[in-house]
Request: fold
Amino acid sequence: MGEYEFGLWVFMLAAFLGFQLIRGVSPLLHTPLMSLTNAISAIAVVGAIMITGAKGASTLSLILGFLAVFLATLNVVSGYLITDRMLKMFKKREPAKK
Amino acid sequence: MNNDTLLNGTILPIIYMLAAMGFILAIKWMNSPATARRGVIVGEIGMLLAVVGTLLRFGGNYQWIFVAFFLGTAIGIPIAYYMPMTAVPQRTAFSHACGALASALIGTAEYYKQMQSGPRMTSVEMTALIVETLLGFLTFTASLMAFGKLQEVLPQRPITYKGQNFVNLGIFAAAAGIGLALIVAPEQTYLFPIFTVLALTFGVLLIVPIGGADMPTVIALLNSYAGLSASAMGFVLNNKLLIVAGALDGSSGFILAIIMCRAMNRSFSNVLFGAFGQLQTTAAKAGERPVRSASAEEAAQILDSARTVVVIPGYGMAVAQAQHKLKEMFEMLTKRGVNVEFAIHPVAGRMPGHMNVLLAEADVPYDKLREMDDINPEIAMADVALIIGANDVVNPGAETDPHSPIAGMPIIQAYKARTVMVIKRSMNPGFAGIDNELYYMPNTIMLFGDAKAFLSSIVKELTALVRA
Reply:
């Protein structure tokens, strides 16, 4: 099996897994869900590191890679933190009265 | 086996696999508020593993990488902590823009890197690269446009002109055509900048005809594109972790977009090309008919004597920042023995779940936030339906008038309640410019005023009632 065929299988299975998992998420949490998946797709940082860190990278690669690492890191950091900040707000019962 | 091959051959794939498992569990645990925060933690661990593993294997030019890490973190933390919750839709659009641009830039860098050493890319790799950069660039500008509309720097109404769909389609076809030419013969480097500009332009034009009320669908769709772009990158760089994470994000955004479309009884193409939200000229005659209105005092009395109140919030509540006052009213009524529930329409607000986050921020317990299908059968038994800043999602015309632009859209059946109260600034038609029969029904009382101000007057009157 070629590398790309294998990749397509992985993609297909992951997409189906995604469909099944997302269906289970209550609409209550759709906003934090979106910010979480956003942070997850900032996995692009891996590609950005590969481009920037490559031996003998050209100046263009370095600049584009630098920007990509910056943008992806921004998404990772703000994405996870904001998801957590939102989730912290979801409480079941009344908080104890002061 | 030297260190390098050990890491590359055995350890790194395992690290990546663990990272992918972290992401899958993170999404799985999002299905309940009780486990969701745990999900964030495994997601973070997954990301950390992936980054450290990649640095160990592919690290180099560390000064560039670490300065970028530092800057991203230094800007990301304040955004996460100081952004007001009402700005969540804008922030989401902004981060889609960042993610998509990152992905597109990586694709661009990879393309030029390959060209430098003579074209060696297979057509499969090149196809993936074209998909990655096309989706990346168009999502970048489209998300910036969405950001502009949500932040209200740009007009929220759809902007249309004759032949618009034709122009848009033409530009997309041109971009796709040049992309195809690049796949066939990657060495035509002069085509790449043209391709980039076309993709960027298409992103802008795509959002121009889309109105604010359709933002929930559009944001979800852009979320999907950003994910798919990352997934395509996985094919270019031959990295399964990227494929998996991108596919998860892509399918998530896609499902949300489908849910949003279904909640409006509209198709994707109708959302993207229908320019929904243009002022309906026929609605001009509205406002002539008599309506019943009431003061805050009367409203407070009606609410106080009710047994069950269903509150239906909409984007207007977010605009007026009325959620905290609403929470005060909720508390007072609950103390008086009134059962208060919140009915949330899937497309209320400007992104999926927008209302839930705002009400949760105001400390409304989440078991009081009910989904449309869940609460509709109970509304007939409610004494009061209180509508705050919602319009189309409670418009009975969707069920009764086959010619209405929102015909067939599932609504929250507020009209079934014994008394319907609507807090609204004036009789001006709502965003879509569609007249709402609900306002003229005999059991409807209009409460004219700013949502936040009116709710504070109600709270004041309720306090007075408690004292008396």
Q: What stands out?
A: Confidence is low (pLDDT under 50) at residues 281-286 of chain B.
